Amino acid sequence: TLPQACDFTVFGGTGDLALRKILPALYHRDLEGHLPPDTRIIGVSRSEIDDDGYRAEVRAGLETHLAPEHLDPDAVERLLGRLHHLCLDSGSGEGWHLLHDLLKDRPHADETVRVFYLAVAPRLFGPTCARLAEIDVVDERARVVMEKPIGHDLASAREVNDAVGEVFEERQIFRIDHYLGKESVQNLLVTRFANTFLEPLWSSRWVDHVQITVAETVGVGSRGGYYDHAGALRDMVQNHLLQLLCLVAMEPPTYVGRENVRDEKLKVLQALKPLSPEDVDRDTVRGQYAAGLTAEGPVPSYADDLAGPETAGAPDSWTETFVALKAEVRNWRWAGVPFYLRTGKRMDRRVSEIVVVFKEPPHAMFPGSEGVTTANRLHICVQPDEGMRLHLTAKEPGPGGIRLRPVSLDLSYADAFDQRSPEAYERLLMDVIRGNPTLFMRRDEVEAAWSWVEPVLARWADSPERPRRYPAGTPGPYAAAALLERDGRAWQETD
Ligand code: BG6
Q1: Belongs to which family (predicted)?
Q2: Which one, 228, 273, 456, 472, has least CB within 10 Å?
Q3: Ligand 1: which residue has its CA nearest to atom 15?
């Protein structure tokens, strides 16, 4: 239920994430009248600006990041009126009493839900929480929100979780994986469990394999400082792709509750077959984009993108900007069914998609149909064109015998629902305010995902082979195609 009042504090309040995602999301919810009436938004950063200076920055941010038709002057003023700014350094103790005074100095301070959003570097998560405890603003209604990356391996993830866990109980900790807030990702659960016809087919009995692709056309942009220490496996696979895999593979929970969906996802992560060093060599591919020609025109290589002021002198990076791998969920439902995952930057198209490829019909009964592939495929498109497409085989119209032709049943959400799909952050931030953690990653999930990813990181770190170069604007290195060809399969590209 919605609280009466909320103080929403954003550490990193002038940063890119705050201006691009968090504040526009709060604006939309405010526009629709969904924020608690008495909500204040407190931006915290090291910038020496006052409330008005912050309002000006946020106004500019909203004007840049929101579509003009969504900018309602009254709603913008209302949101700006909620804003405050405090200049303080998460690393040092200075200035923290200001936050204490601001949070305590309001009507009904003791009944206000305090949200602390840590949109800062992960090394500051623990220290920031410790300061919040010191200034005595963490009560049982308080919540903390963390962005990924939560650690860079299992041990560091545990450290972060321990440090935050010193101050907040697990029920108060909201770890964001923004993929879980996407409408089409939530719809995956509904598609699977609110329809009867799919579920009986959803197993190794009828499914040949599953493909999960998150392809981006953007490069590393200005995030080289972070990205070069992370790479695609940590940045995308450990979280977004494994979460998608969990939603595809999980067992039906008895109801959609705060713990039981997460319990089922955890079981999937725990059932992932651990990868031995030989498995890593055989079943994973890492790539790095080279200069190439994209729809935007020619673009530089990853190394050249890195050569900004922050990372100058480190152009010979072995960081991967592309990963393809083969995983297996070792349980009754999925034994023997490969899950092929791939993600990359500077690929030829932007698409996030899950493809479930069913087995061929057991018997080819139509004359001339031997050897013709008629396997059904269900494409679940997460973005950019949210929808679903079921590939079937039909008879080509005509009097002369039976000729088989591929056809598709298409569902486009934009056509089916005449309403704006809210951004992932809108849903997730409201869930934080309401105190509903269902769509957030629990500590055990994050750590199970790291446990599975770690042997890959370790093997790659030891390998004398550098990531394979692929020209920007292409589907990634050839080895990714070969990974499937070896198994007699191919990546299903959306047409
Ligand atoms: C983020 C990654 O979590 O997800 C980025 O850090 C990536 O590198 C982004 O670009 C992709 O998100 P979306 O919603 O644009 O698919």
Answers
A1: Belongs to the glucose-6-phosphate dehydrogenase family.
A2: 273
A3: 216
